[in-house]
TrEMBL record:
<dbReference type="Pfam" id="PF01182">
    <property type="entry name" value="Glucosamine_iso"/>
</dbReference>
<keyword id="KW-0378">Hydrolase</keyword>
<comment type="similarity">
    <text>Belongs to the glucosamine/galactosamine-6-phosphate isomerase family. 6-phosphogluconolactonase subfamily.</text>
</comment>
<protein>
    <recommendedName>
        <fullName>6-phosphogluconolactonase</fullName>
        <ecNumber>3.1.1.31</ecNumber>
    </recommendedName>
</protein>
<dbReference type="InterPro" id="IPR006148">
    <property type="entry name" value="Glc/Gal-6P_isomerase"/>
</dbReference>
<dbReference type="GO" id="GO:0006098">
    <property type="term" value="P:pentose-phosphate shunt"/>
</dbReference>
<dbReference type="GO" id="GO:0005975">
    <property type="term" value="P:carbohydrate metabolic process"/>
</dbReference>
<comment type="function">
    <text>Hydrolysis of 6-phosphogluconolactone to 6-phosphogluconate.</text>
</comment>
<comment type="pathway">
    <text>Carbohydrate degradation; pentose phosphate pathway; D-ribulose 5-phosphate from D-glucose 6-phosphate (oxidative stage): step 2/3.</text>
</comment>
<dbReference type="InterPro" id="IPR005900">
    <property type="entry name" value="6-phosphogluconolactonase_DevB"/>
</dbReference>
<dbReference type="InterPro" id="IPR039104">
    <property type="entry name" value="6PGL"/>
</dbReference>
<feature type="domain" description="Glucosamine/galactosamine-6-phosphate isomerase">
    <location>
        <begin position="10"/>
        <end position="220"/>
    </location>
</feature>
<dbReference type="InterPro" id="IPR037171">
    <property type="entry name" value="NagB/RpiA_transferase-like"/>
</dbReference>
<dbReference type="GO" id="GO:0017057">
    <property type="term" value="F:6-phosphogluconolactonase activity"/>
</dbReference>
């Protein structure tokens, strides 16, 4: 089940997504004094991050982490940690608590174990999860052909962070499991451009999840996926 919201411009999308995220985070803090936000990296979220960073929220009560991470240090331009530190954790959002997934001087597997331990203290489910999508139909680091794809997509897998290696992924990846993402209070997919709309339309059709892992979120998310799209 998915609800698609289309916007005239990418700025209108960023403002609407920031509204929905702010509402969910404010409600969580009002309800239990804390909130969590897991975001994806890549190029799409930059404008949204910049808009959200200016929102007046109880940021010191909000924990921000990454849906997935390239296995590179924050100094690398490929780092999602660097992307979030540059575009989101500034302005009003500078007071948020950030939990990275990458750990230096560790193997990817050791870093995944540490990241699972360090994120297990975040209330379950996440309040907000923002997914992106590649033109190959991957989301998070659930890449077609990924070495750990079956385990990553298995709803029965233990919530946590695992490694993923795949031809289309570049570096080894660290990614939350689908089981950790699928029941977020607000589960959003943020995509932009005509090409990704076509990829989404294909993903909404028949075919195995392994070919287009975004299908797991479209078909088996516990929370209906809210899709934000602009040309
Ligand atoms: O680390 C990553 O790359 C992301 O978490 C990934 O899942 C991203 O959302 C898609 O690859 C889309 O990336 P673009 O926004 O760059 O197209």
């Amino acid at each position: 089940m998915a609800h698609i919201h289309s916007y005239e411009t990418r700025l209108a999308l960023a403002e609407a997504l920031a509204d929905a995220v702010s509402e969910t985070l404010n409600a969580a803090v009002a309800e239990r004094g804390a909130a969590s936000l897991a975001v994806s990296g890549g190029s799409t979220p930059k404008l949204f991050f910049d808009v959200l960073s200016k929102r007046v929220l109880p940021w010191d009560r909000i924990t921000v982490t990454l849906v997935d991470e390239r296995f590179v240090p924050p100094e690398s331009d490929r780092s999602n940690h660097q992307l979030v530190a540059t575009h989101l954790l500034k302005d009003k959002a500078a007071d948020a608590n950030f939990v990275p997934l990458f750990h230096a001087d560790k193997t990817a597997e050791e870093a995944a174990t540490i990241a699972s331990q360090e994120t297990c203290g975040i209330d379950e489910p996440f309040d907000v999860v923002i997914l992106g999508m590649g033109t190959d139909g991957h989301t998070a680091s659930f890449f077609p052909g990924g070495d750990n794809l079956a385990e990553a997509l298995d709803a029965a897998s233990t919530r946590g962070v695992m490694t993923m290696r795949a031809q289309g992924a570049g570096e080894p990846r660290l990614t939350f499991t689908f089981s950790a993402l699928r029941d977020a209070r607000l589960l959003a997919l943020h995509i932009e451009g005509a090409e990704k709309k076509q990829v989404l339309d294909t993903a909404l059709g028949d075919g195995p999840e392994e070919d287009m892992p975004i299908r797991a979120a479209l078909r088996r998310a516990q929370t209906p996926l809210t899709i934000f799209w602009a040309p």
